[in-house]
Design goal:
alpha+beta; two-stranded antiparallel sheet; 7 helices; rod-shaped; disordered N terminus
Length: 241
C-alpha cells in the first residue's frame, strides 16, 4: 500500500512540485514523522535481537561444563541446539537437543508491518511536503490516506498483541522450565542446572513501541479524517436544524 499515494505522482496534475517544509510542523506532518521514527525502533528492537540460553552440565568425564543454545530473530527456537559438553558426548549418553517452538510467523508479521509502515510514511511525507496543494484540492488523496491509516492502526493492534503473546512463549521456552524436558539430562550420572538466559528487556521495549505506534495511528486517523469530505459533511449535518 505504500505506493498508493505515490502512484498519483504520474498524473499531470501533480507535475508541479511545491516544497513546503512547514508541513512538518503541522499535526498531520509531525505525527507522520513520529510514526516513521517509531517504525524504525520496532524494526531495530525486534529484528536485531540475539540471545542464548545456558546450562551447567556435569556428566561422565565432565564437571560443570557450560553448554549454550543461541537464538535470534525470527525466533525459530527449534533450530537452537544444545551441543554435547564434550567431544565424546558424555560417554555416549548425550544427544543434541533443540529448544521448543517456532515463533517466526509472529515475529515476521510484527517486523514486516514496521518495514511497510516505514515505506508508507516516507511516501506520505513526500506527498505532504511536495504536493500538499494537490492533496488538499483532491479529496481522493485524504480518503485514501484515511483508509490506509485505519488499516495500519488495526494491524498495529493485532500484530502487537500477537507478538506480545509470542514473546511470553519465547521466555517460557528459553527459561529454567526447559531443563526437565531435556532427555540427555536424565541419563545416569548426568545433571543439568539452568544457568542463564539473555535479558529480553529490549524485546519488551519492542512491544511498548508497538503499542505507541497503534496509539499514534489512531490519532492519525482523526487528523486525516478532518481533511476529508466526510468531516465537512458531518459538520453540515450536525449544524442543520
Amino acid at each position: 500500500w505504500c505506493w498508493v499515494l505515490m502512484a498519483a505522482l504520474v498524473s499531470p496534475r501533480m507535475v508541479g512540485l511545491r516544497l513546503d517544509i512547514s508541513m512538518l510542523l503541522e499535526p498531520l506532518g509531525f505525527v507522520k514523522v513520529l510514526e516513521w521514527v517509531l517504525a524504525i525502533f520496532v524494526f531495530a528492537t525486534c529484528g536485531g535481537f540475539r540471545g542464548e540460553t545456558a546450562l551447567l552440565v556435569s556428566c561422565e568425564g565432565v564437571v560443570n561444563k557450560t553448554v549454550t543454545a543461541a537464538f535470534a530473530y525470527p525466533f525459530r527456537l527449534n533450530t537452537a541446539v544444545f551441543s554435547a559438553p564434550d567431544p565424546k558426548g558424555c560417554g555416549g549418553t548425550w544427544t543434541d537437543v533443540c529448544l521448543m517452538g517456532d515463533f517466526s510467523s509472529s515475529a515476521h508479521f510484527f517486523v514486516a508491518l514496521a518495514a511497510l509502515v516505514f515505506l508508507y510514511c516516507v511516501t506520505a511525507l513526500v506527498v505532504y511536503i511536495g504536493y500538499n496543494h494537490v492533496y488538499q484540492q483532491n479529496n481522493k488523496f485524504p480518503l485514501t490516506d484515511l483508509t490506509i491509516s485505519v488499516l495500519i492502526a488495526f494491524l498495529w493492534l493485532v500484530s502487537t498483541f500477537v507478538w506480545a503473546k509470542a514473546l511470553a512463549d519465547i521466555k517460557a521456552s528459553t527459561g529454567a522450565s526447559i531443563v526437565p524436558g531435556i532427555e540427555s539430562c536424565k541419563a545416569p550420572g548426568t545433571t543439568c542446572h539452568f544457568l542463564s538466559v539473555t535479558s529480553m528487556g529490549i524485546l519488551n521495549v519492542s512491544v511498548v513501541f508497538g503499542l505507541l505506534n497503534m496509539i499514534l495511528w489512531v490519532g492519525n486517523v482523526w487528523l486525516v479524517y478532518k481533511d476529508t469530505s466526510l468531516h465537512s459533511q458531518w459538520n453540515r449535518i450536525s449544524e442543520s436544524p
